[in-house]
Amino acid sequence: MRKRLCIPSGDVDFPSCDVDLDGRLATYRDARSFEEIGRANPEVRPGGRYAPSTCTSRHRVAIVVPYRNREEHLKILMRNLHPMLQRQQLDYGIYIIDQYVSVVLRPSGSGVIPKEQGFRY
Description:
- It contains three helices and five strands.
- With 121 residues, it is of the alpha/beta class.
- It is globular and about 40 Å long.
- About 6% of the residues have low confidence.
- Pfam families: Glyco_transf_7N.
- InterPro entries: Galactosyl_T (IPR003859), Galactosyl_T_N (IPR027995), Nucleotide-diphossugar_trans (IPR029044).
């Protein structure tokens, strides 16, 4: 089966992919275990990578999440973020960056992360 390119349906140059953005998106405020989140999102590959199986996404997205001693918050974020991004038919990767005290901070407060890490996928 040939994959289609996911694009807005108004563009006539490429066939459109059905993106289900109508209706409410369920949001959760309670944390579940990482195993349970993995079972709820079986198409997410190890390492937090997902690509739609029915079409080829037009965009590839890298999401960098700074993490520091907030496992419950991380579980809530992953439980909500995976379904939202899958609904948009995005080819994405989620990268959890554990913040250490020794991380060099820029004036903006963001840690220095080599750009090669984000572009490797």
